[in-house]
Structures are given as C-alpha cells and as structure tokens.
Write a structure and sequence with these properties.
single chain, alpha/beta, 10 helices, 8 strands, 16% strand, globular
Length: 263
C-alpha cells in the first residue's frame, strides 16, 4: 500500500509533515501549507480517507508505519517537524513510539488517549446515525462544530458520503480504543501537546496523560476554542507552531495560553 500525498516547497528545506483528522483529509491543512512556504511540506491522506480512500483498511499502527516510510524517504537527514490532529495526533503518537529518534519537533493536537469504556457497544449505537452522514443539513451542523468553513464544505460533504459504514465503524473503534504505547516515553522529540478549552474533559485529561508519559512534553490548553484549533484559528495556530519551533516560545505574550503544564 502506498499513501497518496501532496508535497510543497523546497525539498532542501526542513521537512514539515501534516497528519489530518478522521473524516477529513489533507485539505484541512491548506492554511498551514500556505503559511509555511519556507519549509518542505508533506501532506499525506490516511488510508480510507481522501485520495487514499481505496487503499488498505485503516488502522492507527498501519498508518503510522506508512507515514514513517514517507518521512524516511523524504527527510534525508533534514530536521523533521510533524503535526497531527485528533485521529492524526494518535497516529503521530504511534510514530513517536515506533521511531523515537525520527522526528525533531512534534505537535500533538487534540489526541484522545483514554480508551472509552464499552467502545464497541458505543460504536454500534453510532452506526444508527450513519445514514445522517449523507444528509446535507446534518453535515452542515457537523462541519460547523469542526470549524469547517463554507469554502471546504462541499469537499467535506463528498468525502463523508464516500465513507462507507464499515470504514466508519473501523475508524471509530480505532479512535476510541487508542492508548499511549509503552515506548512513547522513549521518544527524543520536543513535543508540544494542545487541546481546546471547550473540548470534553476526557480530552483535557488525555493531554495530562500524554505530558506525564514523556519528559520532553509540554502541554497547553487553548482558550475559547473546541476541537479543531488549526481550522478555527489558523493564524494563531500557525504562529504558535512557528514561535515554538523557531524561537522556543509558546505564544505572543502568552495571551492565548490559559493553562500550561511544565515539563
């Protein structure tokens, strides 16, 4: 299996890899790719998503393995920065666990790492709502909750319609059963962990779990935003990444940081 991906920028510059969330694809990072034009940007579509929708069945570990292969092929000794959101953040945690020295900087945004009890039963109940995925009104409500603006709604809607029930169930089960791998503690990456203030409490508890699992982690809670900071506030998110990677600071005068968990 070969993941489909898009590549931008100068191949001689540091590599920046963007790993999208579940139910969307690489387009969610368009504002980031545009901003980080002074990097070599790599944006893969995960299995059963976007341009990789016809590839092998999605699992977090399989996706991590395939993105590792891409990074090893494209990095060629350059610094590597990796950013993952939601399901993609879980994939990034797996990558850091499988290859502790592969990535220099990692941004883990909104990763669930506390397995949800009775997740299989919950997933089965969610399949009852699956037909709503193809209902445009329902999709608009979902898109709004994820900060997807009207320019991307049609792409989002078409991808939702393309996702079959079996894929939906499999992806949900992977997401809700995920926990931090034991080897995550060995990652040498400089790791920034973020979550939105308006996200569920289990997401904030997951942030604390991640920070406690690796001494290289620093965690922040971002005020006045829910699940999807990169789409909700792309300018702020881009500056956050830039300041942290290039200057080792977390925000512009710390105005956007409501809670900081130190190393």
């Amino acid at each position: 299996m070969v993941l489909q991906y898009k590549e931008y920028g100068d191949i001689n510059l540091p590599l920046m890899v963007f790993i999208h969330g579940g139910g969307v694809s690489g387009w969610m990072w368009d504002k980031q790719v545009e901003y980080f034009s002074n990097y070599h940007c790599l944006v893969p579509d995960m299995p059963e998503h976007g341009k990789s929708s016809n590839e092998k069945l999605f699992t977090i570990n399989l996706c991590a393995e395939k993105i590792i292969q891409l990074i090893e092929e494209k990095s060629k000794g350059k610094p590597v920065i990796a950013i993952g959101f939601s399901l993609g953040a879980q994939v990034l945690i797996s990558i850091l666990s499988m290859r502790p020295y592969l990535i220099d900087y990692a941004i883990i945004n909104s990763a669930l790492v506390r397995p949800i009890p009775f997740s299989k039963m919950l997933t089965k109940s969610l399949t009852l709502t699956y037909p709503l995925v193809k209902n445009k009104t329902f999709s608009k409500i979902q898109a709004k909750s994820m900060y997807i603006d009207e320019n991307y709604f049609e792409t989002y809607y078409q991808e939702c319609c393309h996702l079959n029930k079996a894929s939906f169930v499999r992806i949900m089960e992977e997401n809700m059963a995920f926990k931090i791998p034991n080897n995550f503690k060995n990652s040498s990456s400089k790791i920034l962990v973020t979550v939105g203030e308006k996200e569920r409490s289990i997401m904030k508890k997951s942030l604390v779990d991640i920070v406690k699992s690796n001494s290289n982690c620093k965690g922040i809670i971002l005020p006045k935003v829910g699940h999807g900071i990169s789409l909700a506030k792309p300018d702020f998110f881009n500056k956050l990444i830039e300041d942290w990677v290039q200057n080792d600071i977390l925000s512009d005068n710390n105005k956007e940081i409501s809670c900081l968990y130190p190393n």
